[in-house]
């Protein structure tokens, strides 16, 4: 059992958080700047705001609750099933063409 981030299935919650938060670009607005940063083993959101006159830099710890569950084994089984659903009709058509050529 793993954690789904986008189309990837990762084994640990730390790896999933790393992939998710490192892919989020910093946000620039008229009032400041906001970005995610990994400090030790915790993710922080750093905010620099200039909207109220004096610039303010704040940092707060993010709680990573989790991501949707996924299973690499199930993804493999789904891929095999889809592959056979593609290959079986092709083999049937090739077989029918061979039989037609042989007996007609």
Q: Please tally the helical runs, counting DSSP H or I stretches of 4 or more residues.
A: 2
The averaged pLDDT comes out at 87
Strand count, sense and closure of the main sheet? 4 strands, antiparallel
Secondary-structure-derived class: alpha+beta
Structure report:
40% of the residues lie in helices and 33% in strands. It has two helices and seven strands. Strand 5 (42-49) and strand 6 (56-61) form a beta hairpin. The N and C termini lie far apart (54 Å). The mean pLDDT is 87.
List the helices and strands and how they pair.
Layout: E1 2-5, E2 8-10, H1 13-22, E3 27-29, E4 32-39, E5 42-49, E6 56-61, E7 69-70, H2 72-103
Antiparallel strand pairs: 1-2, 1-7, 3-4, 4-5, 5-6
Characteristic terms for this protein:
single chain, 104 residues, alpha+beta
In short:
40% of the residues lie in helices and 33% in strands.
């Amino acid at each position: 059992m793993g954690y789904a981030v986008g189309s990837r299935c990762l084994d640990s919650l730390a790896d999933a958080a790393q992939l998710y938060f490192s892919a989020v670009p910093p946000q620039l607005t008229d009032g400041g700047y906001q970005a995610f940063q990994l400090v030790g083993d915790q993710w922080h959101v750093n905010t620099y705001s200039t909207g109220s006159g004096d610039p303010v830099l704040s940092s707060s710890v993010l709680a990573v609750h989790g991501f949707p569950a996924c299973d690499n084994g199930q993804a493999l089984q789904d891929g095999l099933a889809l592959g056979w659903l593609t290959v079986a009709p092709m083999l049937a058509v090739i077989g029918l063409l061979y039989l037609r050529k042989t007996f007609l």
